Every structure is written in C-alpha cells, then in structure tokens.
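User: Here's a structure from my thesis project, written as structure tokens. My advisor, Dr. K., wants to see whether a designed sequence matches the one we expressed. Can you design one independently, without my sequence as a hint?
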C-alpha cells in the first residue's frame, strides 16, 4: 500500500467548510511574516499564525515563485536554520494530554541552490524521524500521536549534514484520551485511508480532530457508496464523508485483502478498522466475515451495523511476519454478501525512553538532552533513562550584567538563560533580594515555561 500525503493543491478537497471549533489547535505557518498573521486557510477555514513568537532562532524563506499556484498557503514560507546544531520550538500544551502532531517540510528551492535538505526531528530529547527531501518536490508530512508529559512541548530540528534543517508548518491537535491507546511509547502514522476510488482527501472540518484521510482503492476492489447520513458517534469520530463509501472484493466469494510494509520491518503495529453497513439489506441477506492478520489478530463472525460506525482495533501491538502485513476479511459460510471496509488506520510504536530534564531546571529546548548537545557552560547529572537529568552546576561560573528584558530563571540553581548570548549564566545576590520568591524579569519573547514566575518590572516593583 502506497499512501501519498497531499501537500499540493491537487484533486478535490472532500469537505464543506462549516463553522467548527478549533479549541486546542496549534497551527503554525513557519517563516510567515508577523504582519501577515493570522489568516484563515481558504480551503477549510483553519486559522494559521506565524511561528515567530515560538522560536527566536532561524531565518525566514519563501519557496520558488513557480510553486505559488501549486502549494497550499502554509507551505509557501518556511523557516530554515543555518546556525546551531539543534533549534527548538517550545509550545504551550496541556500536561498528560494526547496530541496528534503533524510536521511539514517543503524545500521548494527557497535558496536557489537545488540542494535538498536532510535532518532529524526530535520531540524533546528523543529522536522522532529523519527527514530526507531528495526526490520529494512536494515535501513531507509526518504525524505522530504523543502524550505530553508537561505543559511545554519541544519540537527540535537537528542538523545531521551540510544542509540546513527546514520546517514549513507545525500542526498540533488534541485527541480523546480513550483513543489510540498503546501499551507503551507513541504512535507514528503509517497510513490513514478511506476506501474510495477518488482523489479527494478529507480533513477538518469534516474531521473535527483534523486527521487527514487519503483515498485508497485496490484494483481487486468494488466500490459501494451511499448519500444517507451515517451515525459516527463513537470515540474515534471518523468523519461521515469517510464512511459513506466502502470497498468489497471484486470476486464476491473471495477475501478482501489489504497489504502494507511497516517501517521499520520489525515494528510493533496497531491497526484501527472502521466499518458501517451502507447498503440496504433484504430480509434474507447477511453480511458476516472474519478477520485474519497473519496469525497476529483474529476476529470471527463480524457484521457491520446499519448506517452506524463500529471501530475494531488491536488492543496489543503486533509484529507482522517478515515485515509484510496482510489483512484478510474473509466471508463466513453463512454470509450472503461479501465483506466490506470503510476506513483504516495503521501506526507503528516508537519508544521515547529519555525523560526531559527536571521541570525546575528549565530552558529553551532541553538543556541537558540529548547529552551530546547539552548547553554550553552547563553540567548535568545523568542517572538512568527512568530518572530525569538534573542541572548540577555551571562549568565556568560567570557573573554577568543582567539584560532584564531578555532572560528567564533556572530556579533550582539561581541561574538564568540569557537569550542574547545564548548561554546560561549565574546571577548576583542583589537580584535574589529583589523578592522573597525567586523571580526575574522576562520579555514576551523569552523562552518562558509556566513553572517559572516571570514578572514585568512594573509588576515586581508594585
């Protein structure tokens, strides 16, 4: 199964724009000039804002003008990072909340060099994915379902070669906690499809969680559709438009087969299958089938519910034989009709073993992890993967003049992050005496986390 992610303005967008809430959504158009922010995407009404208030590093670029009529607006600008090994976005999120995180990168020959970048993307101190834009003129879009551990989420771009990392858009959507449950780790998207012989993808506002559903249809399938309303009220909230079509095997007595190759080949896989009966059955007609997934997952005697979604999923991760996953929906002997399926999602488990640095020792990006890229002039203690690193001291303590408009405290050690010099420095006792609490002046552009108590000069003196 090959799923092509649609960054380009091609095909039909299968949604009617309606007024819907975007509560909890983060939609960043990276590199967008602040004076052009915010704006509403003309295709689905999503509100995008500039990333300039979420990161203090990098430079803005714009793809080649020939792509202006090809790419969606959020992919026309980008942020690139010619300096530094690691550059991080720090985003405000709710702790212990499950999020769908989508990151897009479109090179678009913004620099006129025709050198496709390659780089890594990290979530906090853990590597998520390697990006290689060679042979990808329309860019990449990668998704992961990840649970936040604190009220701040760091997305970091790491230079791995001679080219500069780039990023076009960051989109973060809250999910229900009782969906996409894994025994451990986060879930990286392999594919998310609805079974339809078309070229129109589905996302917000049809999907209230703004998941992207790409059409998929095999040559051995037959398509059935309906215009009737389908009840999609289960926890997964599959869009109704994705449920109004289904695939059945062209050979009505044979199985419906779906195959794919997870990456890596030995990955642990979670599968989510969404069904609704969209045909009107005669009194003597039965649709019943079994599920077979290479001995990993079996379910017998399933019948879809009339015009109502039912989601069947693997509760424990499975590993496909020889890296080839093969799902078969097999008609039972008493069934009159062939099996069907409306929509399907597959994910692989990705473990993030490194814990973020202790929340009391804060900064822009994790100051201690990855260990090879800990901040200059800083010494951290490392115990094991289950224990967050702690900042223990500076390697070379220096008392510097405080630039009150541009720093934040690391409260555990009475150090602060000076954004102007990109270093951690100690601060003098006269500042501690400024308040009984350990507080410090911070500008709105400083890398602030909510565990700090950051005040303006007026508030402090009052």
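Assistant: Designed independently from the structure alone:
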């Amino acid at each position: 199964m090959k799923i092509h992610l649609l960054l380009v303005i091609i095909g039909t967008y299968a949604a009617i724009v309606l007024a819907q809430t975007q509560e909890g959504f983060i939609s960043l158009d990276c590199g967008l000039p602040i004076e052009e922010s915010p704006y509403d995407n003309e295709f689905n009404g999503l509100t995008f804002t500039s990333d300039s208030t979420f990161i203090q590093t990098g430079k803005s670029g714009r793809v080649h003008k020939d792509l202006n009529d090809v790419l969606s607006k959020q992919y026309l600008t980008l942020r690139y990072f010619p300096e530094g090994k690691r550059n991080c976005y720090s985003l405000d999120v709710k702790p212990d909340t499950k999020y769908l995180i989508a990151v897009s990168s479109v090179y678009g020959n913004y620099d006129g060099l025709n050198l496709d970048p390659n780089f890594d993307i990290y979530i906090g101190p853990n590597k998520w994915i390697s990006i290689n834009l060679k042979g990808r003129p329309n860019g990449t879009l990668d998704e992961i379902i990840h649970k936040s551990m604190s009220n701040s989420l760091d997305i970091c771009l790491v230079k791995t070669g001679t080219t500069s990392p780039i990023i076009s858009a960051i989109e973060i959507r809250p999910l229900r906690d009782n969906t996409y449950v894994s025994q451990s780790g986060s879930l990286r998207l392999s594919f998310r499809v609805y079974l339809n012989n078309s070229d129109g993808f589905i996302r917000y506002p049809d999907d209230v969680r703004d998941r992207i559903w790409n059409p998929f249809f095999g040559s051995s399938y037959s398509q059935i559709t309906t215009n009737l309303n389908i009840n999609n009220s289960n926890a997964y909230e599959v869009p109704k438009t994705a449920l109004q079509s289904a695939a059945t095997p062209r050979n009505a007595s044979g199985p419906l087969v779906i195959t794919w190759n997870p990456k890596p080949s030995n990955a642990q896989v979670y599968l989510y299958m969404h069904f609704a009966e969209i045909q009107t059955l005669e009194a003597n007609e039965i649709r019943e089938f079994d599920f077979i997934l290479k001995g990993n997952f079996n379910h017998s005697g399933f019948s879809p519910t009339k015009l109502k979604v039912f989601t069947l999923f693997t509760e424990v991760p499975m590993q496909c034989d020889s890296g080839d996953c093969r799902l078969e929906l097999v008609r039972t002997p008493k069934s009159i009709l062939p099996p069907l399926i409306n929509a399907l999602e597959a994910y692989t488990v990705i473990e993030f073993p490194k814990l973020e640095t202790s929340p009391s020792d804060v900064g822009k990006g994790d100051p201690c992890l990855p260990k090879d890229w800990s901040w200059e002039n800083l010494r951290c203690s490392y115990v094991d993967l289950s224990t967050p690193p702690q900042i223990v001291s500076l390697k070379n303590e220096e008392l510097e003049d405080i630039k009150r408009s541009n720093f934040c405290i690391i409260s555990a050690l009475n150090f602060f992050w000076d954004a102007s010099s990109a270093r951690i420095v100690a601060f003098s006792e006269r500042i501690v005496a400024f308040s009984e609490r350990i507080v410090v002046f911070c500008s709105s552009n400083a890398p602030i986390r909510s565990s700090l108590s950051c005040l303006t000069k007026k508030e402090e003196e009052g």
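When you compare it with your expressed construct, this may help: The radius of gyration is 25 Å.
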